[in-house]
Structures are given as C-alpha cells and as structure tokens.
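User: Here's a structure from my thesis project, written as structure tokens. My advisor, Dr. K., wants to see whether a designed sequence matches the one we expressed. Can you design one independently, without my sequence as a hint?
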C-alpha cells in the first residue's frame, strides 16, 4: 500500500472483533507514504482492543512501514467494565515485523479509562520485534493501566528491537508503573535505544 491520503477516518467498534485500524492485519507487507488527517477510533465493547490508525496488527513476516503519518487522532474506549490486554499505538497497535522509519503522529489523544495491563505508545503500542527509526509523537495519552510510552508502550523480549533517533513530546497521564517518555516498559533490556 502506498501513496494514500485520507481525511476524516472514523472507526467505531461495536462487535467482538478486536482489531481497529485502516488496515486490520498486515503480514509480509510494505506500507509507504500513507497519511491520515483526522481519525477517531472508538470502542464501545467490553473486550480488549488492538488499535492503530494505519495498522491494527502487524504481526508476521517482513512488515515495513515508511514515510507515513497520522495527525489529529483520537482513540477512545468507552466501556463500563474493566478491560485488560489492550494494545494501542498511534500508528500501529502491535508490531512484529522489520522496520518503521520516518513516521510521525501529531495531535494524538488516547483516553482509555477502564483498562489494566495495557500497552499504549505514540507510534507502537506493543513491539515484539523490529526497528523504529527517525520517528516522533506529539499529543496526550491518558490511561489507567501499565506500560505507557511516548514512542512504544511495551517491548517484548522475543526478538531484536532498536529505537533510534526518535523523540516524543507527549503528555502522559497515568498513576501506574512503567511509564516513559520514549518506552513504557522494556523487560530485560530487550531493546537498543540510541539518540532518543
């Protein structure tokens, strides 16, 4: 997928399928020069969500995302019961691929009020494997739950990950543990973060 510009992308989740995004699932895919202006992802179902404006779940093979962005983004989970295991990123919910490069998100607002064991990141919510280079995030993230980061919420230790030349200017409102300006939680030093 390449050379795409979208305005006013709205996704309201009312079923039990947990993936929310322009692309629900990506495997062995190249995404280049995709830009979204004005996006709202909203869940009203008491199930965990995997959400990202461009890709909800990039979890397999050689996934490459380059030169892409989202601005004026709102992600909301409006439920009464406590939900666990959310994976929410501004651009990508979960990433288990090759690389994300030269991407950004601006004016992001994430409000997940009734959740625990959540991974929320400005670029990627839950990073299994891959390199994030020359990316930035700006906005506000408010969540009740752990693992919130300006660039990546949680890094798993199953594979090689790097975060290089990235910055975040994100206001994070969270009283729980594992909150970071760049990375929320990085167990066992799984990543190699430089110039961030």
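Assistant: Designed independently from the structure alone:
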């Amino acid at each position: 997928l390449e050379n795409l510009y979208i305005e006013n992308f709205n996704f309201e989740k009312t079923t039990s399928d947990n993936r929310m995004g322009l692309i629900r699932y990506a495997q062995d895919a190249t995404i280049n020069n995709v830009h979204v202006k004005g996006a709202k992802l909203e869940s009203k179902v008491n199930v965990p969500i995997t959400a990202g404006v461009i890709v909800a779940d990039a979890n397999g093979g050689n996934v490459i995302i380059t030169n892409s962005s989202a601005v004026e983004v709102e992600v909301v989970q409006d439920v009464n019961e406590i939900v666990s295991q959310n994976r929410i990123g501004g651009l990508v919910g979960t990433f288990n691929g090759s690389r994300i490069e030269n991407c950004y998100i601006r004016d992001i607002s994430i409000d997940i009020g009734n959740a625990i064991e959540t991974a929320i990141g400005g670029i990627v919510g839950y990073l299994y494997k891959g390199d994030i280079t020359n990316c930035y995030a700006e906005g506000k993230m408010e969540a009740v739950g752990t693992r919130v980061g300006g660039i990546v919420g949680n890094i798993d230790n199953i594979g090689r990950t790097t975060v290089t030349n990235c910055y975040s200017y994100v206001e994070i409102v969270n009283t729980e543990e594992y909150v970071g300006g760049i990375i929320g939680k990085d167990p066992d030093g799984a990543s190699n973060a430089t110039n961030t």
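When you compare it with your expressed construct, this may help: The chain has a mean pLDDT of 86.
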